[in-house]
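Note to self: keep these together.
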Amino acid sequence: MQVAHNLIMISNRLPATVEPSAEGMQLKPSSGGLVTALRPVLASQKGAWIGSFDANSGMAEALLELSAGSARADDTCDMIGIPLTSAEQHGFYAGFSNEIVWPLFHDLQSRCNFDPTYWKAYTSVNHKFATTIAHTAQSGSRIWVHDYHLMLTGKFLREMGLHHRMGFFLHIPFPPLDIFEKLPWRSQILRALFQFNVIGFQTPRDQRNFVGCVRRLLPEMELQRVEDEVYSSDGEHASLIRVFPIGIDYNEFARAAEQPPVLQRAELVRRDMHGQQIVLGVDRLDYTKGIPERLKAFRHLLTTHPEVHRKISLVQIVVPSREQIPKYRELKLEIETLISQINGTFSDSGWTPVHYIHRSLSRTELLALYRTADIALITPLKDGMNLVAKEFCAAQVECRGMLVLSEFAGAAAQMRGGAILVNPYDIEGVAEAVLRAFETGPKERRKRMLRLRRNVRKADVFHWCQDFCNCLDGVGAA
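Structure:
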């Protein structure tokens, strides 16, 4: 007998990883913010989570054991996996999702590879997802699809005859018209998104960009703005277009930052830095994060303001990502070359200007750095939200740190009251912002950080999740 699920979450990946054990393949829950936020919601609503996995990973066996009760990752939701072959992953994920949508939606169209075979793979895998969703959904189920990998699923679900309430949330930015219209399949993507009852974006800018594209490319669509909401209709189907800025689990971060292992690690960091102010960068290896530009700005600071020598150091964390892709290997080499040049030029006895860590950090290590950093330098060229900025503020329990944030990060819309906003392409401007943060006194630092922490606490990930679900409940099914 099929289980009835009130809320069905759909994302590219399942919220768990598979690990071998003496008892067989075991599932370990993922620890990301989205999973953390949605667990209690799914548990209370008999939820299910649908996502893909590598057909050769052993996940299929673990999911079978999960259904038998011997490999259960947790008790919050059922997990339904969609196996993808290597060819499907190449065309759908590495290809269309990350060689077309990812760079295009981050305004980096020169990095796009508009290979038509990628579109075929993307369409095929989205249909595969829709088939699984349709099989899982029962009368009354609500369907929530996440992110750019799955923009066509609503279209296929409606074609399969589903009239359920369906929502879509885009975690990355949505580009302006002059960028989006370069996508050969632009109209198909837009029409597919309008099969969802609720279409959610991170920022008002993303909402405006989307509406602008619709007005130009789908002139038959009727749009009506009511304050911060936009309602659309094509005569047959209506959608709500709204902003839902995602947050983090503020209380969990703040509590974890006070734990003894974090305090001990933070003390070691302070001792190793010999009283220098710490400028912290934490990024996944990606060309959208602006790491080379940040390093050039720090070099400019050291060149033009020798008085800060031996008083400030940049700790740059780069988490490995997609290094099998040539452009990412080239980016890693560029970063490491810049760091070598800076340290070779400015290092002095007992002082290294840039400390480079190329690996994933444990949670304790990361929280210790968040606590001890005097300045967080977060300068993506463009970002949907950037939760590192919010994590840094939540962990700053002593309220002594400054946030220098790219104006092109989604988080800037919420954090402009306490952060110093910069244009990441402005090398001199970023350098001057770091100097300003360096020179800011304790009273002003505390005032700014208290304001930021209140903001992050109020708009946490649970508020985001409940807000979206409430909107989905408030619309009529198709």
